[in-house]
Design brief:
This protein has a domain of 30 residues. It contains nine helices and 16 strands. The strands form three sheets. Strands 3-2-1-4-7-16-15-14-11-12 form a ten-stranded mixed sheet, with helices on both faces. Helix 4 runs parallel beside helix 5. The longest helix is centred in the first third of the chain and has 28 residues. It is globular, with a radius of gyration of 22 Å. The relative contact order is 0.13.
Length: 374
């Protein structure tokens, strides 16, 4: 190549880089902002990383759905629940939901004493006395009031489980059109990893089976209220895919949504009670694994995303992720990331499934016609 052709090639490369960087920002700048009044509930905020809801703030900014003020929601202040400084929680009331279009229940598990016993911002794996957590009857009434006014409500794991009381849980189950079976589930690549697997998992296993929890390697663990536990391990009991999240609805309105994904974090096992099942979790069990599940009364399939009127529930701790998100104002890359997401399974699920599904819920549902937000 001649020096001149090399120069043209270099200029072309620089132009491509500038276009890759500037075009999404330009598109975002000229995109119309459509106000959306959002309330976020997160009671599991022991530290200032706001991990259980931060990604929702990012997505709302990327979609250009700010509140009427025009300022993007701040994950450090624009939510209801526990404040890591000064380590205090405050229940919300109907007044906090007045004028809101969308309520997102990110996590209600709460904050516990042992969260602060180790150096660094690492949540405790061991159980300890509660500092703050769970939904109250007053909060349940506020949520029901917003639903009655036509508000859009999205919930995720943990909305039903401990420490929310049975009476309040029943009200939330009716709202979302499901029943929680009291089973929760998670996959771990290494069952003996003390930095990831809670010690109570081993204690429940030893209590149920009366033998040491000495299983090695990966495993899909299902636990019911500390009284029953199932562990499926590949390749004998589960296939390499472990779990699949599959779109079950054939409605034309869902045609643009992804058909299948893999989600391997915390999941609550639900039964539909009037809700439409839009996605379902499928355990990829072998014959041996199916026999084990049957002995414990567990199905191979159970809801992953349900819709009940204007309420949606994702059976998974889906928003909880520490992946690097980048600049939300380069949102033109969202569609690209959906189809070309790479890296960890966590990254592929967030960009390939969670982000487009959440956007569809928010955009498809919109405001209730004639809804009174007072």
């Amino acid at each position: 190549m001649t020096p001149r052709s090399i120069g043209f090639a270099a200029l072309g490369f620089v132009a491509l880089v500038l276009a890759w960087w500037l075009v999404p920002l330009t598109v975002y700048h000229f995109k119309e902002a459509r106000p959306l009044e959002v309330a976020i509930v997160d009671k599991t905020v022991p530290f200032r990383n706001y991990r259980e809801h931060h990604n929702l703030n990012w997505l709302l900014h990327a979609w250009k759905r700010p509140p009427a003020s025009g300022q993007p929601l701040d994950p450090a202040s624009d939510y209801l629940g526990f404040r890591p400084i000064p380590r205090r929680g405050e229940d919300f009331t109907a007044a906090d939901l007045a004028g809101k279009d969308l309520l997102f229940i990110a996590d209600t598990y709460g904050v516990y004493v042992k969260d602060y016993e180790k150096p660094g911002e690492v949540a405790a794996l061991e159980r300890s006395p509660k500092i703050y957590g769970g939904l109250t009857s007053t909060e349940a009434a506020a949520i029901e009031g917003l639903a009655a006014r036509g508000g859009l409500i999205i919930g995720e794991f943990n909305t039903f489980a401990s420490p929310t009381s049975e009476a309040v849980r029943a009200r939330m189950e009716r709202l979302f059109g499901v029943r929680w079976t009291h089973w929760v589930m998670r996959y771990w690549p290494d069952l003996q990893d003390e930095n990831e697997v809670p010690k109570w998992v081993g204690r429940v296993y030893e209590r149920v089976y009366r033998r040491p929890f000495d299983l090695v390697g990966p495993g899909l663990v299902m636990v019911k209220d500390d009284v029953d536990i199932v562990v499926l391990q590949p390749p004998a009991q589960i296939a390499r895919e472990i779990l699949s999240l599959v779109k079950t609805s054939t409605l034309a309105e869902l045609e643009s949504l992804p058909g299948e994904a893999h989600y391997l974090y915390w999941i609550d096992l639900l039964e539909p009670r009037g809700a439409e099942v839009l996605y379902e979790h499928r355990i990829e069990a072998t014959e041996e694994g199916q026999a084990i599940l049957a002995r414990h009364g567990l199905p191979l399939r159970f809801p992953g995303l349900v819709r009940h009127g204007r309420t949606y529930y994702l059976a998974g701790d889906c928003v909880d992720t520490a992946i690097e998100l980048g600049d939300p104002e380069r949102a033109g890359t969202l569609s690209w990331r959906r189809y070309f997401a790479h890296g960890s399974a966590e990254q592929r699920f967030f960009w390939g499934t969670y982000a487009p599904v959440m956007e569809w819920i928010v955009e498809h549902s919109g405001r209730a016609d004639g809804g009174d937000r007072r």
